[in-house]
Automatic annotation (TrEMBL):
Lineage, broadest ranks: Bacteria, Bacillati, Actinomycetota, Actinomycetes, Streptosporangiales
UniProt cross-references to Gene3D superfamilies, sorted A to Z: NAD(P)-binding Rossmann-like Domain
Source organism (scientific name): Streptosporangium fragile
NAD-dependent epimerase/dehydratase domain ranges (all copies): 1-222
Region (Disordered): 111-132
Protein name in the entry: NAD-dependent epimerase/dehydratase family protein
Length: 342
């Protein structure tokens, strides 16, 4: 798996390991080793023999790596998006044998929002608004070329993923932090805007089910139901037992008025559709992100060593691909990522 240290990557890793799979997790962000997980700390664009061996020898590859952040406006973000979303994606597509199932995480942002309030279907032509969505559209074109050559490829478009482990720059994380500190919740556009909020646990389950059923082509991962920002804010207030206020700001062109997934293709492939209990989801994310009490070290993550193994599992650094990695890759699902997908 690429992007194994990212938001969705961590949940997908947990889901696979709980199902009895062996995972090789590739990320340039160090991860703690644990049973069932072999860690590769590497950049996908480095010519790393361990990464090549992992991608070439896996039974399944999940490519979640990328440069996240629809609203990122920092200097150099266009270059980072092209490097991490397009060039790194091309490297993975070239490294994975055509006969090996490859699931690639794109984004619902390629739709540019729901059109006229109708759910977005996989057959709708892309309308990317902003650099992030454009980079994901380019990645999808590369995937289409692999499919045309007979490569086993599934492209997923997740919709507004939330839950434990969400990145701190994402809206719900920011709202929880603001509510805890008594600050107004920053709202872009209007509280009446809607989002198809999807539980990260169900996103991970949908990904594994799609691979298990041999799905090919593009698939939405969403609920098919929109939640207003007002309802999401009410869930934040109830989850924290706090009163909230709002600071409403004009929305940029990259912010759609609504997002909504057409889930008919997903249901036809896996036999179910994600459902989001908004209050439960917000409560889980709030509990997972709660500040530690003074003197509480339970949330501390041990730094993995660069090369070697621990009782929890192997941690592998850069270097020639040896028998240890090849044994770990055999029968493993590979998750590779630079940072994470959204």
């Amino acid at each position: 798996m690429t992007g194994a240290a990212g938001f969705i990557g961590r949940m997908l890793t947990r889901t696979l390991i709980e199902a009895g799979e062996n995972v090789v997790g590739i990320d340039r962000i160090p991860q703690p080793a644990r049973p069932g997980l072999t860690v590769l700390t590497a950049d996908l664009l480095d010519d790393d023999g361990l990464v090549r061996a992992a991608l070439d020898g896996a039974d399944v590859v999940y490519h979640l790596a990328g440069c996240p952040g629809v609203r990122d406006r920092r200097p150099g973000v266009a270059r980072r998006r092209h490097r991490d979303n397009v060039l790194a994606g091309a490297r993975v597509l070239a490294a994975v044998p055509p006969s090996v199932p490859l699931l690639v995480a794109s984004s619902s942002s390629v739709y540019g929002g729901a059109r006229g309030g109708w759910p977005s279907r996989e057959s709708d032509p892309p309308r990317p608004a902003g650099g992030y969505a454009e980079s994901k559209t380019l990645l999808e074109r590369l995937c289409a070329e692999r499919i045309a050559r007979g490569g086993l490829t599934t492209v997923v478009r997740p919709f507004t993923v939330a839950g434990e482990g969400q990145r701190p720059d994402m809206a719900l994380s920011q709202w929880l932090a603001a509510a805890r500190e008594g600050r107004p919740l920053r709202v872009l556009g209007s509280l009446d805007r809607t989002r198809d909020v999807t539980d990260v646990r169900q996103v991970a389950r949908a990904m594994t089910d799609l691979v298990a059923r041999g799905a090919q082509g593009t698939v939405n991962i969403g609920t098919g139901r929109g939640h207003s920002l007002r309802a999401l804010a009410a869930a934040v207030a109830e989850a924290l037992g706090a009163e909230v206020s709002f600071a409403v700001e004009p929305a940029s062109p990259v912010e759609p008025g609504a997002s909504l997934a057409d889930t008919s293709r997903l249901r036809s492939l896996v036999g179910w559709t994600p459902e989001t209990d908004l209050l439960d989801l917000v409560r889980r994310q709030a509990a997972a992100s709660a500040p530690a009490a003074p003197g509480d070290r339970s949330g501390k993550v041990r730094e993995p060593v660069a090369v070697g193994a621990s009782a929890a599992g192997p941690v592998v650094g850069a270097g020639p691909a040896g028998p240890g990695l090849r044994a770990a890759v055999r029968g493993a699902a590979v998750l590779s990522s630079l940072a994470e997908a959204t």
